[in-house]
Amino acid sequence: MRLDPYFRKAKHFPEALNRLREILLEYPLKEELKWRQPCYTYDGGNVVILHEMKSYCGLGFLRGALIDDPKGVLVAPGKNSQAARQMRFRSVAEIDEQEDTLRAIIESAIAVHKSGQKVDFKAKRELVYPDELKEKMAGDAAFKAAFEALTPGRQRGYILHISDAKQSKTRSARIEKHYDRIMDGLGIHDR
Question: Is the pTM of this model over 0.85?
Fold first, then answer.
């Protein structure tokens, strides 16, 4: 299949990734390459991404916050994650041990996608701009216009990154570091 080379090049958990792939391919999901990772879609929409990290591999569910998870196996990939959830594994034995739960999660993810449910992001829309960013925008009209022209998600990414710094000088340094990217309309993770 088209993504076989991805699975052959797996560095840390090749057997576990292949086992997860086998399970996913039993469902009515289409296997595609998105974001340089295997992504499984249903009716054109992204449902789950298969990924490998140094310490685990797993499944990333894009609307994971809406998935029925009675055993509490899904985890947020980061402290600011709103919608995505992951199920992580370190071996084929772990996958086999949790296979019934894994299958229930996959079925729930497909059902959420079919239902058209969306994660409500309203609770986190109101972001607090750090003082250093406010000052930069007040003193540089072109920068302010460029920042406000960014998509809400890109703005959020920068605000969270800048705000995460404990010291004012670090927050200011982060603004300067990303100044050109913001002026070019790029998000913090855009290439």
Answer: no
